[in-house]
Amino acid sequence: MTQLTINAGQYSEKGIKEQNEDACGIRIPDEAQLINKGIAIAIADGVSSADHGREAAEACVTGFLSDYYSTADSWTAKNSGRKVLGAINRWLYGQGQSALSGQGMLTTFCGLILKSTTAHLFHVGDSRIYRLRDGDLEQLTRDHQTWGGAKKAFLSRAMGADSGVEIDYRSEPLEEGDLFFLSTDGVHDFISHKELKQLLTELRSHPERAARTLVTRALEHGSHDNVTCQVIDIATLPCQNQQEFYQHLTELPFPPALESGMILEGYRILRELHASNRSQVYLAQDEESGEPVVIKTPSVNFEDDAEYIDGFLHEEWAGKRINSNHVLKIIEPKKPRRFLYYVSEFIDGQNLRQWMNDNPDPVLDEVRRIMEQACAGIRTFHRLEMLHQDLKPENIMINKDGVVKIIDFGSTRIAGIQEIASPIERGNLLGTYDYAAPEYFINQPGSNRSDIYSLGAISYEMLTGQLPYGGALSARALKRVSYHPAHEINNNVPRWMDAALEKACMIKPQRRYPLLSEFTHDLWHPNASLQSTEFQPLLKRNPLGFWRGSALILLVINLLLIYQLLK
To answer: Exposed, middle or buried: residue 83 (CB in 10 Å: 0-12, 13-18, 19+)?
Structure first.
């Protein structure tokens, strides 16, 4: 199975200056992070007019190369890079403000993340990233400069210049044989585009020599600045055909059928809790600690289904990265596994469907408390750039102490994983349609608002016993369905709370709540803006006025017709 590999070289000199205020670095992580996070490359040019340009450049490069790998594996490269650079920028600005001089810590920055088959570029200032492909050298970044008198350029954007910074970002598909060139202005300002292309083409198989040669050539051409550059050759890209991918997935065989009393790698099976055509769930006991646990095993119906096995593996992957009292906890097995399964905590309680059956006429505050906890759990997914995508009463548990926990990560979409090349399509909706957001039915991508819709629909059903649009949606039905006011079904539901449910369940995602916290707040507190008439037709907000107006219009029309006949 081919991995992403590069041949790289870099070189930096102070040139004619007293000290080198440039910085650069490359980090190639171990195999797991290479897959999940990729390779990080960074270059920075400390602003010479600042008191601490050299320290700023070093802080940017070292901070980016270390902190990027500390971000969540589930985050996209774009989100990770921007979060890290935003934090570094705030630190630089704060340090600069506390310095005696007002110039502070300023630097340009270029970052390159090579993840799977995509290059992610981050850029601030006038350092540059180029790409040589098929004999064509292209500058991929745009200099942030303004021009003053005597045709002199000044930086218009730099790291550390303000508490916030606009970071240019773009992504480009990778091809084997691509050559990336990163440089500070002490190099690219003193080598013509033609010569740069020629030297990179001639020396592409020797990146280290290429970097040294380009630095030397810039100095020969009269560079009066620090000179730093990096040359990155894309040697191989991750490439898996379906057979290789399946072989990797099936390194662990499916476990045999399990029965009470059997022992699976230190876990004694007590009884089956649930079984479907997709998986089996067992109550078991950890023989070492005596603690009850739950074991989930894949169904033998899917032993040759690569997409299913990949999804099953990512259930555990996602669960291990979520730490919330309101989300099912995944337990790391104490022994090396010889079979495909995963272990989770045992929740002693009932699912929300059972609770709804037991409470057909619930107290409003109980509904609010349950939904508040469910939203807290899903908020943890969203902070990790994950979408649950299968929220339904059966996937919400309430333990004997009243603590609500989200379970089942089988349909979870993980933004960071979506960036990793695979011969199968990941992130498809696998859950029930009853609570699925409308956008899924017209093949639009989901967002955090899709999970908000599902939670809104569940809240509505808890209060009314029905779904907000009368039943499951479909692509054909979206244009003709209308929201059924919850207060008309259950007169205990105040209109202001119904307005919150309606906003959560809007057909168009952009009209729903953007954040779960706003939804939970409005379940407890009247929101005056939702009681406006912005989205309500006249017939709905004032039926009497509608019919009076209609009658008046008809009367006028009839009088006009009579007048025409009598003329």
So the answer is: middle
pTM for the full model?
0.87
Q: Which residues contact 91 (CB under 8 A, 6 or more apart)?
A: 59, 63
Q: Which of 50, 45, 49, 51 is nearest to 21 (CA)?
A: 45
Q: Are residues 184 and 202 in the same domain?
A: yes
**Closest C-alpha to 230, from 53, 4, 50, 6:** 6
Total structural domains within the chain: 4
Report yes or no on 161 lying in a domain: yes
- At residue 230, what are phi and psi to the nearest 5 degrees? -135, 140
pLDDT (tens digit per residue) in 432-480: 789 999 999 999 999 999 999 999 999 999 999 999 999 989 999 998 9
DSSP 3-state assignment of 215?
A: helix
- Amino acid identity of residue 283, one-letter, is L
Domain coverage including residue 174: 5-236
Q: Which of 208, 236, 264 is the last residue of a domain?
A: 236
User: Residues 44, 127: contact at Cβ < 8 Å?
Assistant: yes
150 and 259 together in one domain: no
Residue 525's identity, in one-letter code, is H
Q: Are residues 26 and 87 in the same domain?
A: yes
CA–CA separation, 277 vs 406, rounded Å?
21
Residues of the chain with pLDDT under 70: 1, 99-103, 148-151, 240-246, 248, 426-431, 532-547, 567
Q: What is the pLDDT of residue 240?
A: 55
Asked if residue 111 lies in contact with residue 122, where contact means CB atoms within 8 angstroms, the answer is yes
Residue 341 lies in a domain: no
